[in-house]
Protein backbone atom coordinates (compact mmCIF):
# COMPACT_ATOMS: atom_id res chain seq x y z
CA UNK A 1 0.00 0.00 0.00
CA UNK A 2 1.19 3.51 -0.76
CA UNK A 3 -0.99 5.02 1.97
CA UNK A 4 1.67 6.23 4.38
CA UNK A 5 1.50 8.22 7.59
CA UNK A 6 4.67 9.92 8.76
CA UNK A 7 5.10 13.11 10.78
CA UNK A 8 1.43 13.86 10.34
CA UNK A 9 1.58 13.62 6.54
CA UNK A 10 -1.10 11.38 5.08
CA UNK A 11 -2.54 10.19 1.81
CA UNK A 12 0.28 11.15 -0.57
CA UNK A 13 0.17 7.81 -2.36
CA UNK A 14 -0.83 9.30 -5.70
CA UNK A 15 2.05 11.78 -5.67
CA UNK A 16 4.47 9.02 -4.71
CA UNK A 17 3.12 6.78 -7.47
CA UNK A 18 3.52 9.60 -10.00
CA UNK A 19 7.09 10.17 -8.79
CA UNK A 20 7.96 6.49 -9.26
CA UNK A 21 6.49 6.53 -12.75
CA UNK A 22 8.50 9.63 -13.62
CA UNK A 23 11.75 8.06 -12.43
CA UNK A 24 11.03 4.83 -14.36
CA UNK A 25 10.29 6.85 -17.49
CA UNK A 26 13.59 8.69 -17.13
CA UNK A 27 15.43 5.34 -17.28
CA UNK A 28 13.68 4.42 -20.52
CA UNK A 29 14.33 7.85 -22.01
CA UNK A 30 18.01 7.66 -21.08
CA UNK A 31 18.61 4.58 -23.24
CA UNK A 32 16.39 5.71 -26.11
CA UNK A 33 17.84 9.22 -26.29
CA UNK A 34 21.52 8.35 -25.83
CA UNK A 35 22.30 4.95 -27.37
CA UNK A 36 23.14 6.35 -30.83
CA UNK A 37 25.57 8.94 -29.46
CA UNK A 38 27.25 6.43 -27.15
CA UNK A 39 27.80 3.93 -29.97
CA UNK A 40 29.02 6.51 -32.49
CA UNK A 41 31.35 8.17 -29.97
CA UNK A 42 32.81 4.76 -29.16
CA UNK A 43 33.76 4.08 -32.78
CA UNK A 44 35.10 7.61 -33.24
CA UNK A 45 37.31 7.22 -30.18
CA UNK A 46 38.62 3.79 -31.17
CA UNK A 47 39.40 5.02 -34.69
CA UNK A 48 41.20 8.07 -33.31
CA UNK A 49 43.35 5.84 -31.12
CA UNK A 50 44.25 3.70 -34.11
CA UNK A 51 44.77 6.59 -36.54
CA UNK A 52 45.84 9.61 -34.45
CA UNK A 53 47.02 11.62 -37.45
CA UNK A 54 43.73 11.40 -39.37
CA UNK A 55 41.47 14.45 -39.18
CA UNK A 56 38.57 13.94 -36.78
CA UNK A 57 36.10 15.16 -39.43
CA UNK A 58 37.03 12.26 -41.72
CA UNK A 59 36.55 9.77 -38.90
CA UNK A 60 33.18 11.22 -37.94
CA UNK A 61 32.03 11.09 -41.56
CA UNK A 62 33.02 7.42 -41.71
CA UNK A 63 31.21 6.58 -38.47
CA UNK A 64 27.99 8.50 -39.10
CA UNK A 65 27.63 7.54 -42.76
CA UNK A 66 28.91 3.97 -42.78
CA UNK A 67 29.54 2.41 -39.36
CA UNK A 68 26.18 3.61 -38.02
CA UNK A 69 24.28 1.77 -40.75
CA UNK A 70 26.48 -1.32 -40.43
CA UNK A 71 25.81 -1.61 -36.70
CA UNK A 72 22.22 -0.43 -36.36
CA UNK A 73 20.53 -0.81 -39.75
CA UNK A 74 21.93 -3.38 -42.19
CA UNK A 75 21.64 -7.10 -41.60
CA UNK A 76 24.20 -7.92 -44.28
CA UNK A 77 27.67 -6.31 -44.21
CA UNK A 78 28.73 -3.88 -46.92
CA UNK A 79 32.11 -2.43 -47.91
CA UNK A 80 33.19 1.12 -47.22
CA UNK A 81 32.23 3.32 -50.22
CA UNK A 82 35.12 4.45 -52.41
CA UNK A 83 34.25 8.12 -51.91
CA UNK A 84 34.78 7.70 -48.16
CA UNK A 85 38.03 5.82 -48.60
CA UNK A 86 39.23 8.63 -50.87
CA UNK A 87 39.31 10.95 -47.84
CA UNK A 88 42.15 8.90 -46.31
CA UNK A 89 45.69 8.29 -47.46
CA UNK A 90 46.40 4.94 -49.08
CA UNK A 91 47.91 3.28 -45.99
CA UNK A 92 44.93 4.14 -43.80
CA UNK A 93 42.36 3.32 -46.48
CA UNK A 94 43.83 -0.12 -47.08
CA UNK A 95 43.58 -1.08 -43.40
CA UNK A 96 40.26 0.48 -42.42
CA UNK A 97 38.04 -2.46 -43.30
CA UNK A 98 40.23 -5.06 -41.59
CA UNK A 99 40.33 -2.90 -38.47
CA UNK A 100 36.65 -1.93 -38.38
CA UNK A 101 34.92 -5.16 -39.38
CA UNK A 102 35.71 -7.13 -36.18
CA UNK A 103 34.61 -4.16 -34.04
CA UNK A 104 31.37 -3.84 -36.00
CA UNK A 105 30.72 -7.57 -35.63
CA UNK A 106 31.32 -7.41 -31.87
CA UNK A 107 28.76 -4.65 -31.54
CA UNK A 108 26.27 -6.12 -33.99
CA UNK A 109 26.19 -9.45 -32.18
CA UNK A 110 24.96 -7.65 -29.07
CA UNK A 111 22.10 -5.88 -30.83
CA UNK A 112 18.44 -6.87 -30.75
CA UNK A 113 16.75 -7.55 -34.06
CA UNK A 114 17.84 -5.08 -36.74
CA UNK A 115 17.17 -2.33 -37.59
CA UNK A 116 17.56 -0.64 -34.21
CA UNK A 117 16.06 2.83 -33.85
CA UNK A 118 14.51 5.04 -31.19
CA UNK A 119 11.10 3.88 -32.35
CA UNK A 120 11.95 0.17 -32.17
CA UNK A 121 13.46 0.58 -28.69
CA UNK A 122 10.44 2.42 -27.37
CA UNK A 123 8.77 -0.84 -26.28
CA UNK A 124 11.96 -2.47 -25.02
CA UNK A 125 14.69 0.05 -24.17
CA UNK A 126 16.66 -2.45 -22.08
CA UNK A 127 17.42 -4.51 -25.20
CA UNK A 128 20.26 -2.11 -26.00
CA UNK A 129 21.98 -2.77 -22.65
CA UNK A 130 24.32 -5.57 -23.88
CA UNK A 131 25.84 -3.22 -26.47
CA UNK A 132 26.23 -0.39 -23.97
CA UNK A 133 27.73 -2.77 -21.40
CA UNK A 134 30.26 -3.93 -24.00
CA UNK A 135 31.32 -0.33 -24.68
CA UNK A 136 31.60 0.43 -20.97
CA UNK A 137 33.83 -2.61 -20.42
CA UNK A 138 36.10 -1.45 -23.24
CA UNK A 139 36.32 2.02 -21.71
CA UNK A 140 37.05 0.64 -18.25
CA UNK A 141 39.87 -1.51 -19.66
CA UNK A 142 41.37 1.57 -21.32
CA UNK A 143 41.25 3.46 -18.03
CA UNK A 144 42.94 0.59 -16.20
CA UNK A 145 45.66 0.51 -18.85
CA UNK A 146 46.54 4.18 -18.42
CA UNK A 147 50.31 4.73 -18.03
CA UNK A 148 51.91 5.58 -14.72
CA UNK A 149 52.94 9.23 -14.09
CA UNK A 150 56.54 8.35 -15.05
CA UNK A 151 55.45 7.13 -18.49
CA UNK A 152 52.94 9.90 -19.20
CA UNK A 153 55.44 12.01 -21.14
CA UNK A 154 55.77 9.26 -23.72
CA UNK A 155 52.09 8.31 -23.75
CA UNK A 156 49.53 9.35 -26.31
CA UNK A 157 47.93 12.73 -25.67
CA UNK A 158 44.49 11.31 -26.46
CA UNK A 159 42.23 11.86 -23.44
CA UNK A 160 40.78 8.63 -21.98
CA UNK A 161 37.14 8.05 -22.90
CA UNK A 162 34.56 9.33 -20.48
CA UNK A 163 32.92 6.57 -18.47
CA UNK A 164 29.14 6.53 -18.29
CA UNK A 165 26.57 4.86 -16.08
CA UNK A 166 24.45 2.01 -17.39
CA UNK A 167 21.77 3.07 -14.94
CA UNK A 168 21.15 6.81 -14.69
CA UNK A 169 20.69 8.38 -11.29
CA UNK A 170 17.77 10.77 -11.74
CA UNK A 171 17.19 13.21 -8.93
CA UNK A 172 13.65 14.18 -8.04
CA UNK A 173 14.87 17.72 -7.53
CA UNK A 174 14.93 18.36 -11.28
CA UNK A 175 11.92 16.25 -12.21
CA UNK A 176 8.37 17.48 -12.53
CA UNK A 177 6.08 15.32 -10.41
CA UNK A 178 2.36 15.31 -11.00
CA UNK A 179 0.67 17.33 -8.26
CA UNK A 180 -2.97 18.00 -9.02
CA UNK A 181 -5.91 19.10 -6.91
CA UNK A 182 -6.70 15.52 -5.87
CA UNK A 183 -3.15 14.95 -4.66
CA UNK A 184 -3.01 18.23 -2.78
CA UNK A 185 -6.31 17.74 -1.00
CA UNK A 186 -5.08 14.34 0.13
CA UNK A 187 -2.02 15.92 1.70
CA UNK A 188 -3.77 19.06 2.95
CA UNK A 189 -7.39 18.04 3.58
CA UNK A 190 -8.17 21.28 5.41
CA UNK A 191 -7.49 23.21 2.19
CA UNK A 192 -10.25 21.45 0.27
CA UNK A 193 -12.92 23.87 -0.90
CA UNK A 194 -16.55 22.98 -0.46
CA UNK A 195 -18.65 22.88 -3.59
CA UNK A 196 -20.78 25.99 -3.81
CA UNK A 197 -24.50 26.01 -4.44
CA UNK A 198 -25.35 26.36 -8.13
CA UNK A 199 -21.68 25.89 -9.02
CA UNK A 200 -21.18 25.15 -12.70
CA UNK A 201 -18.06 24.07 -14.62
CA UNK A 202 -16.02 26.76 -16.38
CA UNK A 203 -16.41 26.83 -20.14
CA UNK A 204 -12.89 27.18 -21.63
CA UNK A 205 -14.36 27.88 -25.07
CA UNK A 206 -15.84 31.18 -24.02
From TrEMBL:
This is Uncharacterized protein.
Amino acid sequence: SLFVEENGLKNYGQSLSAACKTVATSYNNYYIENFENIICNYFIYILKRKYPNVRIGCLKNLVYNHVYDEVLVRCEPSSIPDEMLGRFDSDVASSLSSFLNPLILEMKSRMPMLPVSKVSLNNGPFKILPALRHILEKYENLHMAQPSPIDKDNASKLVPPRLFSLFPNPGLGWRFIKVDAQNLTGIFPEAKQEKQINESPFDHNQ
